[in-house]
Each structure stands twice: as C-alpha cells, then as structure tokens.
C-alpha cells in the first residue's frame, strides 16, 4: 500500500472513530439521565429515548464522510494504487472537520440532552422546547459535515 492510500484510509478511520466516539459518549450521558427518568415514570420512555438518540447523529455523519472519501478514491473496490501523497493528505484534511467536531459536539450534545431529559421529567409538556437545546449543538456537527462533504467533492 502506498502512503497516499494510507492517508485516505487514516482520514476515513478518524472520521468514523472520533465522530462515533463522541456519539457513544453523548448517547451514554443522555442514557443515564433517561434511565433515571424512566425508572420514576415509565410513561416518559418515548420522549426521553428521542432525547437520548440525538447525540447519535455525529457517528452517522462521520460514517457518511468516510464512505464518501473511500468511494472517491476507489478504496472500497481494493484499488489502492495511484493515490498520491498530496491527494491522501487532502483526503485526510477533508475528514478532520467532522472527525473533530463530531467528537466534541457528540459529547456536549449528550450533556444538553441529559439536561433536556431533566426538563421533561419535571415538565413533560415542554418536550418540543426541550429538543431545542441539544438541537443547537447539532448545528455545529452539521456545519462540519457540510465542510467535509464540500472538500471531498472537490478532491
């Protein structure tokens, strides 16, 4: 395998690993809060489950970027030849926005979701408003996803 292909694969791996790591941490944080609320009032299960799922999107975004970059360089078909070091470095750079922002925003979205779950526990009629708090964190994951996709498309 050449260094260019290794850089492409490294970029894809970082996009998935870091974004999924952020999602796993965020979903875990929210899940702890959701379990406590559900133990007290099982009727709130669906609402708190939705809040718990919100930080999971960063992992999906990282996976999407990884598939795009691997497809762009024909890595999925096993063709590792002909990828220059420069092209590999560009692919790695294209993956970094969603990798880094996915890690950080996933964790913070989990905290925002946990706080919203607390709001739902006390005032279930505020569910729609409670969704806005973690959704604000999602904005930055989406912006990072957009940058990564735009750069991959131009490679």
Describe the model:
Helix content is 83%, strand content 0%. By secondary structure, it is mainly alpha-helical. The mean pLDDT is 94. The radius of gyration is 18 Å and the shape is elongated. It has helices spanning 3-40, 45-53, 57-72, 85-122, 127-154. The longest helix is centred in the N-terminal third of the chain and has 38 residues, at 3-40.
The run of helices and strands is HHHHH
Number of helices: 5
**Major sheet details:** none
Share of residues in strands: under 5%
Nearest-integer average pLDDT: 94
Low-confidence stretches: none
Number of strands: 0
Q: What's the N-to-C terminus distance? A: 20 Å
Work out the radius of gyration. Answer: 18 Å
Determine the structural class based on helices, strands and strand pairing: mainly alpha
Helix share of residues? over 70%
* Outline type: elongated
From the structure above, extract its key features:
155 residues, mainly alpha, 5 helices
Secondary structure: elements and pairs:
Layout: H1 3-40, H2 45-53, H3 57-72, H4 85-122, H5 127-154
Describe this structure in a few short sentences.
This protein is mainly alpha-helical and about 160 residues long.
